[in-house]
Write a structure and sequence with these properties.
The chain is about 25% helix and about 15% strand. By secondary structure, it is of the alpha+beta class. It folds into three domains: about 45 residues, no CATH class; about 240 residues, Beta Barrel (Catalase HpII,  Chain A, domain 1), CATH 2.40.180.10; about 60 residues, no CATH class. The protein is globular and about 85 Å long. GO terms for molecular function: catalase activity; heme binding; metal ion binding.
Length: about 475
């Protein structure tokens, strides 16, 4: 059965008839059945008024649970195109064959704000993307910064500065967040990073570790704090509108897709923990290899149907793509689909915005609310049946690590090594025009609102990055509280 036609031009020529949800036409959708009085203008409604009852009953059920994080977002349809064949390192078909195109759905969000929050706040942007490949869906759940605040998944929710001074592995992400790229001017001009280490591999058992990087062809553009604050009040949906308007006028955003690639032997000799998402890989040792491009070329037909109901998970991978031993990645592989089942129901993968274009056969998963795929007919709810034969799919990727040992409770410690890359980043900022000034102007008012003991601990933390930085922050907070220029 064909879906409803919501093309505006077509509907103007052939306007639709208003109906009930079951399809029965209604002559006057604004009228209700009543027992009328013989005087005045009152009346009593009756239960036989299906149109009224149906409308009232649906209204309080329109809202679904809001995402706990990444609630506010823009979205678009588009395509991924391979610009360099990767069949030398992976069997993933969507990465094999120069010029091959794969349709995709993307959702770009702030992290902390609720659904009605302003776009132009200092926050990490989430970049979620679903590629509809011939082998099933391939999801990417990226961030606008190359590192994350934590590496132990138990620490995910907590308070801000009190949290950071007691969990200082997040210093690298903090340095990025309060730098020049903390508030993008447009979602058409931001980077996206896989943050985690992933694997690409082949059926012969060979594989490599990779880091994903997405870069806008139009370059990076950012807002200064005062301009962002003004826009937050005047145009809270600034980023959503900017992306929508650009696509609507045919100015399609284009991004390059790049990989850092590391062979297993290189990982062993790298001297870094490649599974720690608070660290980056040095570009001079592992340069970017451009392998594709992304184009956003179509706006959502309906925001709720296409974007709000979209569900993304790093566990959604096709053959040839695999996870690494990054514990944060593994935690997210459980957390994201679990959140989707709560928010959208157990059959959320069957919604049009989530449904694969490839064959799906998973009869262990039956029934449940919202089932719409035939429910596997008369097939048994198990596999290896005498009545229903199965073909065999691809094998999973080979494992580099050999896991032998006891199950233990463990967490990571913060060492001087955690401050090495933030120190390099700070020295890079010092060379950028306005880098030092903007960082201090962004950070000092924010940190200055914390209690004095927390401020002292935070200054000590930044002093571990660079002693001069700690002194600059102390003076900047003092100046700010006295109404003077921070720098």
């Amino acid at each position: 059965m064909a879906p409803p036609n919501f093309n505006q031009a077509s509907r103007r020529a052939n306007p639709p008839v208003y109906t009930l949800q079951e399809g029965a036409p209604v002559s006057d959708p604004s009228a209700s059945l009543q027992v009328r009085t013989t005087y005045g203008g009152g009346g009593l409604g009756i239960l036989a008024d299906t149109q009224l009852i149906e409308t009232l009953a649906h209204f309080p059920r329109e809202r679904i649970p809001e995402r706990v994080v990444h609630a506010k977002a823009a979205g678009a349809w588009g395509e991924f195109e391979v610009t360099e064949d990767l069949s030398d390192i992976t069997d993933a078909k969507f990465l094999s064959g120069k010029g091959k195109k794969t349709p995709l759905l993307a959702r770009i969000s702030t992290t902390a704000g609720e659904r009605g929050a302003a776009d132009t706040v200092r926050d990490i942007r989430g970049w979620s993307m679903k590629l509809f490949t011939e082998e099933g869906n391939q999801d990417f759940v990226f961030n606008s910064l190359p590192v994350f605040f934590i590496r132990d998944p138990i620490k995910f929710p907590n308070m801000y500065w009190d949290y950071h001074v007691n969990n200082q592995e997040g210093i690298h992400a903090l340095m990025h967040l309060f730098g020049l790229r903390g508030i993008p001017a447009s979602l058409r001009h931001i980077n996206a990073f896989g943050v985690h280490t992933y694997k690409l591999g082949k059926q012969d058992g060979s594989f490599v570790y990779v880091k994903w990087h997405i870069k806008p062809e139009g370059g990076i553009e950012n807002l200064k704090a005062d301009e962002a604050l003004r826009l937050a009040g005047e145009a809270p949906d600034y980023h959503v509108k900017d992306l929508y308007d650009a696509i609507e006028r045919g100015d399609y955003p284009v991004y390059t897709v790049n990989l850092q690639i590391m062979k297993p032997k290189e990982a062993e000799a790298s001297g870094i923990n490649i599974f720690d998402n608070t660290f980056t890989w040095p570009h001079e040792k592992y340069p970017l290899r451009q392998i594709g491009k992304i184009t956003f070329n179509k706006n959502p037909t309906n925001y709720f149907q296409d974007i709000e109901q979209a569900a993304f998970s790093p566990s959604t991978m096709v053959p040839g793509v695999g996870p690494s031993a990054d514990l944060m990645l593994q935690a997210r592989m459980f957390s994201y689909p679990d959140a989707a089942r709560y928010r959208l129901g157990p059959n959320y993968q069957q919604l049009p915005c989530n449904r694969p274009i490839s064959q799906v056969y998973s009869p262990y998963q039956r029934d449940g609310p919202g089932r719409m795929d035939g429910n596997y007919g008369a097939d048994p709810d198990y596999v290896r049946s005498s009545y229903t034969k199965l073909s065999h799919g691809s094998h999973e990727l080979a494992t580099h690590e050999q896991w032998v040992g006891k199950v233990t409770s463990a967490s990571t410690d913060v060492t001087d090594k955690d401050f090495e890359q933030p120190r390099i980043l700070w020295h890079t900022m010092l060379k950028e025009e306005g880098g030092r000034e903007n960082f201090l102007k962004n950070l000092c008012p924010h940190l200055g609102g914390a209690s004095d003991p927390i401020i002292e601990e935070a200054i000590k933390m930044f002093a571990r990055v660079d002693e001069g930085l700690g002194k600059d922050i102390r003076q900047g907070i003092k100046n700010h509280k006295e109404g003077k220029s921070i720098v």
